[in-house]
Structure formats: C-alpha cells, structure tokens
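retry 2 of 3: previous attempt timed out while embedding S-adenosylmethionine. Reduced batch size to 1 and resubmitted. Inputs unchanged:
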Amino acid sequence: MKFKQAYDVVGHLPCTEESQCRVLYDWVLEARPAESLELGFLHGKTSCIIAAALHELGAGHLTSIDMEGVRNMPNVPNILQNLEQLGLQDVATPVFSRISYTWELKKLIEKQTKENRCQPFLDFVFLDGAHLWEPDVCAFFLALKLLKPGGWFLFDDYMFSIEKSDWWSRSPDMKDKPDDYRKESQVERLVTLIVSQHPDMESVVIRDNWVWARKKPDAQVQPGPTVTQLTKTIAKRWLLERLFSGKR
Ligand SMILES: C[S@@+](CC[C@H](N)C(=O)[O-])C[C@H]1O[C@@H](n2cnc3c(N)ncnc32)[C@H](O)[C@@H]1O
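retry 2 succeeded.
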C-alpha cells in the first residue's frame, strides 16, 4: 500500500507528523523487517504506516502494544478500526494490555525461552510509549533480549520532558513529582546512559527528535548461569525434619 493511501486515512490522528511517518514508511521499505514490535500505538497512526509499508513489501508482521484504555477513546477510531479501514488487519496485531508493555514483553520472553535462553525474533522495535525512565529503561532491556543481532531500535521523542509535554504536565500523576524528574529529558537519559553504554549496541544515531540504534550483528545470546533450584530441597528437608522431630 502506498504511503498516501494510508496517510489519507490516518493523517488526521494526533502524534507523529507526516514527515516522520514518511521517514518511518521509507525506512521499513528499505530495511524490510520481518518481525516488528511497536510499544505505544494510541490510535494506531504509526502502526498503520508501518503496516502499509509491510503490505507494500508483501511480507512482514507488526505486533503493537498499548494499554486497554486506548480501545475506547471518545470520538476517535481505535487501532482496530483504522487497520480495518485500510484492510491491514492481517499485517498488524494490536495487543491491549491491562498492565503495561513491559508485562507483555515478559510474556514474549517466556514464549521465546528455550533451555534457559531467550531466542530473539524481532528485527525492529519502535518505542513510542511512556517516555519515562522507569518503564522505558525496563522496556529497552526486555526488548533487547527479543531483538535479533543486527536489528534496530527506534526511540521517539528524544527531547521529551514532562514539563514540555502538555498532557503529562497536566496529569494528576505528575503533580507531586520533584522538579528534576519533571524537567529531565528522560528519553535522552535512557539513550545516553543505557542504550549508548550497552555492550550489545553497535551504533546510535540521533536525528530530528528520533534515535535509531542498531544491535551488533555479532551480538551473541550468551548462556546464562547454571541455576540450582534449592528451594524444593530445603522445603523437603524442613518438612521431613518437622515430621521426624515430632515422632521423636
Ligand atoms: C505518543 S503515544 C503513541 C503514538 C503512536 N506511536 C503514533 O505515533 O501513532 C504513546 C502511547 O504509549 C502508551 N503507553 C504509555 N506507557 C505505556 C505502558 N507502560 N504500557 C503500554 N502502553 C503505554 C500510551 O497509552 C499512549 O497511547
């Protein structure tokens, strides 16, 4: 599906503007990610743009995660309706989480774990969610386990801060937060202190409030430590001791 056809349907929706949607669309056409993951879809504007590019390629799938609350927002079509209007339901699968995208990432890691190793399967992860330190640092570490060597992260809103955001600065949750937390560019801190220092990352490019970061093509899924499960042994011993000491 051509960019214009998709943008004519989702262009009126808030968030990512046309020029960035275009960059995203063109990047997908060029990089040809087989499996993509979007964290934060709201009404599905960028999900539809990614899905349109995958449709144009004739291959690839997007999983997109947000909160259950965005299923029913007043006066705006939701992601399911937008995908359906474009006929892209088979290309993108929305997940409405009742907890958080980090919780859904836990489920994906469980699914991908074989013999104590998480097998990465994603080629592209677009993080455009909370833009806050706690959930997004966690999301990065979890998603990195699922990202294949040579795969790409895209972080939205490098310059974001709570104070600069109309919506967040008015949010009751943020009212009592200390000044440094409200003023901090939390995505920038994530990129500078976590992504750029991670030994599995190869490159980080900051452009127009977006950050593209590539995982090293030779990053290995290292085996974890041997896990010795002592709990059962201890519990068994404790039970036996109690049984026998009672009889003695
Ligand atoms: C900026 S909007 C996403 C916009 C979308 N990518 C686009 O441009 O069309 C951010 C979304 O992240 C979601 N979000 C924030 N924190 C989240 C979390 N912890 N788990 C799931 N979704 C979250 C919000 O509900 C919101 O819909």
